[in-house]
Design a protein that fits this description.
The complex is a heterodimer of chains A (245) and B (702).
Chain A lengths: L8 H15 L3 E2 L5 E3 H4 L19 E2 L5 E3 L5 H9 L4 E10 L11 E11 L4 H16 L5 E6 L4 E10 L4 E2 L2 E2 L10 E10 L1 H6 L8 E8 H9 L12 H4 L3
Parallel strand pairs in A: 1-5
Antiparallel strand pairs in A: 2-4, 3-4, 5-6, 6-12, 7-8, 8-11, 9-10, 11-12
Helix pairs in contact in A: 1-4, 1-6
Chain B lengths: L1 E3 H5 L9 H11 L2 E8 L2 E7 L5 H4 L2 H12 L15 H4 L6 E5 L5 E10 L8 H9 L7 H13 L4 E4 L10 E7 L5 E3 L5 E3 L5 E5 L5 E4 L3 E2 L12 E8 L1 H10 L5 H6 L8 H16 L2 E8 L8 E4 L1 H8 L5 H10 L3 E5 L1 H10 L5 E2 L12 E2 L1 H11 L8 H7 L1 E3 L9 E4 L8 E3 L8 E6 L1 E7 L2 E5 L8 E5 L9 E6 L6 E5 L10 H12 L20 H14 L4 E2 L5 E2 L4 E2 L10 E2 L4 H13 L1 H4 L6 E9 L2 E9 L6 H12 L11 E5 H7 L25 H7 L1
Parallel strand pairs in B: 4-7, 17-18, 28-32
Antiparallel strand pairs in B: 1-3, 2-3, 5-13, 5-14, 6-13, 7-10, 8-9, 10-11, 11-12, 15-27, 16-27, 19-26, 20-23, 20-26, 21-22, 23-24, 24-25, 29-31, 30-31, 32-33, 33-34
Helix pairs in contact in B: 2-4, 6-7, 7-10, 11-16, 13-14
Classes of the chains: A alpha+beta (245), B alpha+beta (702).
Chain lengths: 245, 702
Amino acid sequence: MNDKIHIHPLTTLIRDAHAIFHDMGFDLAEGPEIESERYNFDLLNVPKDHPARDMQDTFFVAGTEKKVLRTHTSPVQIRYMETHKPPLRVIVPGKVFRNEATDRTHEAQFYQIEGLAIDTDITLGHLKGVLQTFISTLMGKEVSVRFRPSFFPFVEPGVEVDVSCFKCSNNGLSAGCSLCKQTGWIELLGAGMVHPKVLAGAGINPKVYQGFAFGVGLERLGMLKYGIDDARLFASGDLRFINQF
Amino acid sequence: MIVSYSWLQSFFDEKLPSAHELGDTLTFGAFEVESIKENGNDTVLDIDVLPNRAHDCLSHRGIAKEISSLLDIPITNDPLGSSTPKWISGWNDSNILDVTVEDSKLCRRFCSAVIEGVEVGDSPEWLVKYLESIGQKTINNIVDATNFVMFNIGQPLHAFDRDTLQQIDGAYNITVRLGRDGESIKALDGEEYEVGKNNLLITDGNGGGAIGIAGVKGGASSEITKNTKNIIIESANFDPVHVRKTARQLKLRTDASARFENEPSVLLPPFGVTEVVALIQKIAGGMVEGYVDVFPHKQNPYKAGVSLGEVNNVLGTEISDIQIKSILDRLYFDYEYVEPQKDICALAQTFEGVSYTFGASVTKDAPNTFDCSSFVAYVFAQNGVWLPRMSVDQYVYGAEIKEKDLRAGDVVFSVGNNKKTTHYESKDFIQGIEVPEGVSHCGIYLGDGKVIHASGKESRGVVVNEELKESSDFNTVVGYRRFFDDGKRYVVTVPFERGDIRMPIDLIEEIGRVYGYIHIESKQLDDLGKNPAVHKTFFYAEKVRRFLSGRGFSEVYTYSLVDRGEIALLNSLASDKDHLRASLESGLTASMKLNIKNRELLGVEEVRIFEVGKVFGKYGEHTSLGIAVENLENYKELLLELSSHLGVELPSDVEGNIFEINFDEIVKKLPPPVEYEIDKLKKDTVVYKSFSLYPLLISKFL
């Protein structure tokens, strides 16, 4: 066991995701974990005092200027759009924070990967295709992707993305199993077409440009891929966990 | 939102599909249905209505309308079906009730009706069943009626016992005003709430005391009791932010506040009054004495437009005109199919001579008065072309057109001498975009050298139609812009309750979800023709990870939230997690301790770990690299090797078994990388095996 090389599953997931998206022409970007409300909310079309702010429980940082621990990697979308001209493609892996009680599937800190692609002609169909390639390659199994309507203030249309169950479905047919709660589908991530107000706020004319964005929790992907039963293990620092990988 | 299946059925003559089929319909076309449960003779669906539709779909009618659109089953009993509620015709102005609204920004509308001679008692069985099926308690027929109408159409309502209010000369007054310092109110829940100048109250204008916390909860003093004979109905609309703040401050989130904070339509309150009065008269009797409607700021219906090309270009579909028309019909949207170029010019000319008011609103003042940019925005909006409100933003938004290509329907922008009305950068649209030439005025080009515009010049002050070359408002033209492509557009008159439909993208979403996202075909992105840039920090962090994992180190990720540090959190769930880590030390120390204990089980001679992660100080945040070992002997050598591997000198005179360094500083010293090392993805996946948290105890028994 000693001479085996161990790679933390989060590192492997980020590395693999990067490899897959690199092939599709995506840059990689990072951003600060302490964010201003402007980048974490305002510029993402989540106005102050709007019920949409309740969708994410937020940690506030003490100090003279009002700051938050970023609740998603989406602020880096804005930072990237402000400094790059379209066409642009980027993924953003990183740590995010939510002020929630922790349990087997929830952590106050976790990792996300954000994806963003902007050009004159990027459609919801491209989003479907890109996610299908990403998830199929990452999981090592060809999956189908389906969209359900949802709402995230920074995208419109907003969709919830399900993929066919990794365990029990084959060529679109599903037997149903405990992983997918007998439905044949697994709810995986949120996505949509970047809202015109978000583009405009980041300095990109929405009359000319459009594109998609998505965000996926890495712990959730890891739990599904490796059969990990407790999200808290990822940050446990426990080699009984890490050295299995 | 809990929804009753049999209640939903009441909107339709046609038999609805089963509750489970409805669940799927809603989940794939509108909202996620979280659960479906039997409840007595009824079935209830728990529907996750998100903030974009909470203004109209926290109601059975809202959900029924969605079902109707998605399944193409007509709603036959729609309480909001007529454009104006029935009450206007049948009732008189109240002779005994007066309503005073002190701030019409906070209370946008206040509708009221006085009903005399009601008989308070139990509700009929059907009503009790409906309310109980969605988890509501029955109280009495009057209160139940107000609750029913709220859950039916989404308008929160309240009923006051009129005779608890003070009467002066036979008349009552309700005043909607902000609270005063030291004021308090005992609410219907029996609790005393301290309210102040940040809380809007419903008060007895004659007696002076509070009888309700606006939009949140009614007061105990005017509660409906079994002795109540005469009642006053409140069906109002309040500022959503104000209600939200008050509900938060008082920690009193109610069914009413949850609706008001999502901004239901100001046109909904009269429907609330009509519906509740009809129901009360049916189940509790009584006569309507009269009604009151305080509604100072009327609103134009909103228009939103989209073209076939725009729909398909966003969705990636090949939807046809016939399909769009059918979907718009299913959504109950009234629409016109217009040729914007022709219709914009024609409409603009009908406003010749209309007065000019600087800062006139597009939604409230138009078409009675305009300023230059509200004139353009209004005329375009009526033809389904969304524009920003301000002229400088319109200039930034539109596609640039050369003078020689100018055609009817384009917009002409000019700059004048007045610095006050000239803007040099985009204001609300793309903030920070500079317009050095300046923009102060705009007008619609009609062709043949003519322009029509709302002129603010004192000598004119109206919409004028004149020769562009001779107009003193266009002495210095700065540019021409075009806002729509050739071809026809669908212009929807937005149903009043749909506060979410304003821009083309809002219509595209509606069309997409009714069409069905399931029909969207996957497409791959085109090759961009260039390699992605190499991210320097990520590149070197990967290099360190590969180096260390090759030497028996395991990478750990530890918590950023710890018990001490330089940066504190204002709100934290636990006192041992109320700071951000200033270094990786505590996480690495804890991890070492845990793993040394399990060394034997892990089968390693020495525990070696590292972490790459953000740490936080008063100065800001940086990426830190931490390395921890048990044996110090090989330590120095390892750091020397890592130094030469990276090509940068690392300090090696370290003490203790944890080495930590500012990784951002290291990266700064390194050359920009050229190309990533990218591994092929591994084919076989590790299958994780869970382990006991108490290995020592267990191993004794093995």
